[in-house]
Design brief:
- With 771 residues, the chain is mainly beta.
- The chain is globular.
């Protein structure tokens, strides 16, 4: 067992050139690097207190020409090791027990426990050997936190590995062992977390104020002229927005899509290249200050060492810093070896302690649909359900699926160059309790707001503002993901005429009329219904007909939409247009806004994405009948749960404030103190309660899905509670009871609010599965 290494200090990193200028050599290839800034460890980060008061977000530049940019539909990532410049090395995408790959540089890293010279490349092949799971090597799994009798396996080494077994293999029952023994060799993927850039719209934009009046960019702004536009009868100058700096998975946003299949494990090496900045992009003033990441597959049935969360990883205060890496093993193995536990749409995102929200907002978002070769192989021509999709295998274990489209919903704000960047993390001695950045005009903006969530004014789908999707007259599978930090959406398909509403959230709406002298926005007309087939935990027992569906942060819902017919069953025509529309307003990050609070009858309806019917295509897919069984639910008797085994109350601190604004059971997150120690294999019922009426909380519990077996309110709103979930959406003051199991793995996990401003300010607790 290797000795635990002390974390590097800032002085060490400067000596090693991690943040200095010049170049970093990797193998025989060299990447240039800028002298841009120095990473700051979290314990050195300033929390001076700047007489913080909440302030408005900047009014983003107005997007003049929406519904022009095509919706990005990501292709699946190909397996294999990637060189620092991103090129894929062939023949390195399947695990080899001998660790020998065609290219001698394959799976080399710049830092690990096996090298005494950080920055010097050396090979650490993915595999089950002790210490090969991440950059820190093998170390005691109890991390000096748990009692020795708890039997927690070592960290830095895979707890279970296909065809090898591992620390908890003996704990599996016969059914579980049979499913585990049948696993294939893992596919190997490589994701470099690096600096990239993102332009959210190609449209000309007009700088505006909160009243919707046209302005000019402030002095010092990067101005990219785009001619003039008609601004309500007056010609005004228009501009292009400059690219925003992102921290992305392989430099993109969303950064990667991996189509995975049950029975074929996946290892993803996440490697931190955030110290490399060859294009000298400004980092702006948000994102983890130590440039660290911690990637969580939400909500994979995953061992703690691959789960990406700060109750397991304690080194570097819970993050992988530049040059460090982690091999996350996703077994593609249903919990308990039970076919009924298979999932269908997961995503991965950053989980850096206290900086999850900024890192996610800055770009650390990826997609990972899960396919079931038995019920849901991704091809309507095979399988019993014939759900929409045409599969193309790429010959290397990866595959693409046409007519099966993930739609990540994300709202953002672009800097107006005049709003002050002030928060609790700036230094009052240097006058940094309120600084404007005109040079960042039009670029991504975020503040460290501690007492509420984020309600931004630009809405995007797959990180493109107001895109257009061209579809055929046939059925599609659409997978919705709530990738916003705080915003909740109520989605429907509508027709109408988008009209500009500058200065308002969403910027565009479905027109306005006058009612007794007051403006009333219109909601458009319902155009198509949806057949919901899946929730976060995979296929529902039965299809649910929906006209609208809510998506909260981290929620996933999957629907079938038939673009060949309107809601009245009349056939569509080529050239017809409709819009994916959000009708849930949030004027702040607290909760849904009651329209009566606004002062007039407002039918809020923002057309997020234009959909154009542009042709025909063969369609062998089927919409399941209402009484058809999709996937049998896991059997359990909710009447046998008279009361929850444990209760967790989510509250806001009225006295602590600052970095401890949000609490669970009156406690902030402590990575050294689990609040629950469920026993391996023993199910429990947990009470998850919203302690206040002024907020909603999407509460996420890692490791396995749960069933909601009790709600105190809003039963009709949550009609898909028949399925499994990893997030329980808590309405104001709502009480719930969930039922869940603890199988396959032992060790440390977390539960937290996925309203990420709340998580980052301590609404999280650790829990541990013990032997």
């Amino acid at each position: 067992m290797s000795k635990k290494r002390a974390p590097l200090t800032r002085r060490d990193m400067l000596k090693l050139g991690l943040a200095a200028g010049g170049a970093v050599a990797v193998g025989q290839r060299v990447l240039a690097q800028c002298v841009d800034s120095t990473p700051i460890p979290l314990h050195e980060y300033l929390y001076p207190g700047c007489n913080y008061t909440p302030e408005d977000m900047p009014v983003s530049p107005f997007i003049v020409q929406p519904y022009v940019d095509p919706l990005p539909i990501p292709k699946t990532m190909r397996p294999g090791w990637r060189r620092p410049d991103g090129t894929l090395v062939e023949g390195t995408g399947v695990y080899r027990a001998d660790g020998i790959y065609p290219d001698p540089e394959a799976w080399s890293v710049r830092k690990s426990a096996f090298s005494a010279f950080p920055g010097t490349p050396h090979v650490v092949a993915p595999g089950p050997a002790p210490g090969h799971q991440d950059a820190f090597g093998d170390r005691p799994g109890n991390h000096q936190l748990q009692e020795p009798t708890w039997g927690i396996p070592n960290a830095g080494t895979h707890q279970l590995f296909p065809k090898v077994g591992g620390a908890t293999y003996a704990d599996l029952n016969a059914q579980e062992k049979a499913a585990f023994d049948a696993l294939a060799d893992p596919l190997l993927f490589h994701i470099r977390v690096n600096i990239g850039e993102k332009v959210f719209t190609s449209s000309p934009v007009v700088p505006i104020n909160s009243a919707g009046q046209a302005l000019t960019p402030p002095p010092g702004a990067i101005q990219i002229p785009a001619g003039t536009v008609d601004w309500f009868g007056t010609q005004v100058p228009a501009y292009k927005t400059p690219p925003s700096t992102i921290y992305g998975f392989n430099g993109g946003f969303p950064g990667a899509l991996i189509n995975a299949e049950y029975g074929r494990p996946v290892i993803i090496r996440f490697e931190n290249d955030l110290d490399l900045n060859p294009n000298c992009r400004t980092r702006q003033d948000f994102g983890a200050p130590d440039w660290a990441f911690l990637t969580h597959l939400h909500n994979g049935h995953t061992a703690p060492e691959s789960d990406g969360q700060p109750h397991h990883l304690l080194e570097n205060e819970g993050g992988y810093q530049p040059m460090e890496w982690s091999d996350n093993l996703y077994l593609m193995y249903a919990a308990g070896g039970d076919e009924r536990e298979k999932q269908s749409f997961l995503w991965f995102h950053d989980h850096r302690m206290h900086h999850t929200g900024p890192n996610v907002y800055k770009g650390m978002v990826g997609l990972m649909p899960h396919y079931d070769p038995v019920l849901d192989p991704g091809d309507e021509r095979t399988g019993p359900l014939k759900l929409p999709g045409l599969r193309t295998d790429n010959g290397d274990g990866s595959f693409d699926v046409e007519y099966d489209i993930p739609l990540a919903l994300y709202d953002c704000s672009l800097d107006d160059g005049t709003v002050l960047h002030r928060d609790m993390h700036q230094d009052p001695a240097k006058g940094l309790c309120g600084v404007a950045h005109p040079e960042w005009w039009g670029q991504l903006f975020l503040q460290h707001k501690v007492n509420h969530g984020y309600a931004f004014d630009i809405f995007t789908v797959n990180c493109t503002a107001f895109p257009v999707l061209h579809v055929k007259r046939r059925k599609y599978r659409l997978r919705f993901l709530g990738a916003s930090l705080s915003r909740q959406y109520r989605l429907s398909f509508r027709t109408g005429t988008p009209m500009p509403f500058p200065g308002q959230q969403g910027q565009w709406n479905f027109g306005t009329v006058s009612n007794k002298g007051k403006p009333v926005t219109q909601s458009g007309d319902l155009a198509m219904d949806m057949d919901q087939i899946a929730s976060e935990g995979g296929l529902l027992p039965n299809v649910i007909k929906r006209q609208e569906i809510e998506i909260w942060p981290a929620n996933r819902r999957e629907v079938i939409v038939d673009f060949s017919r309107w809601i009245d069953r009349k056939p569509t025509a080529i050239g017809d247009v409709l819009y994916l529309t959000n009708t849930l307003q949030m004027l702040n990050g607290r909760k849904e806004t009651d329209n009566r609070d606004i002062g007039f009858d407002q039918h809020y309806a923002v057309p997020l994405m234009k959909i154009v019917i542009d042709g025909d295509a063969p369609d062998a897919s089927v919409v399941p009948a209402n009484n058809q069984l999709l996937r049998a639910p896991t059997p359990f008797d909710p009447t046998a749960v008279p009361a929850p085994d444990r209760i967790f109350d989510l509250d806001r601190s009225g006295t602590l404030g600052g970095e401890d604004e949000w609490l669970i059971n009156n406690l902030g997150f402590n990575p050294a103190a689990p609040l629950a120690t469920p026993k391996f294999g023993t199910p429990e019922a947990w009470g998850i309660n919203n302690g206040g009426g002024g907020w909603t909380h999407p509460m996420h519990i890692h490791q396995e899905e749960h069933h909601v077996i009790f709600r105190s309110t809003n039963l009709s709103k949550h009609i898909d509670d028949t399925g499994k979930f990893d997030v329980v959406n808590l309405e104001p003051s709502e009480k719930t009871i969930i039922y869940r199991r603890f199988r396959t793995f032992r060790g440390n996990y977390v539960a937290h609010c996925h309203q990420l401003a709340h998580e980052d300010h301590n609404m999280m607790f650790g829990w541990t599965i013990i032997a």
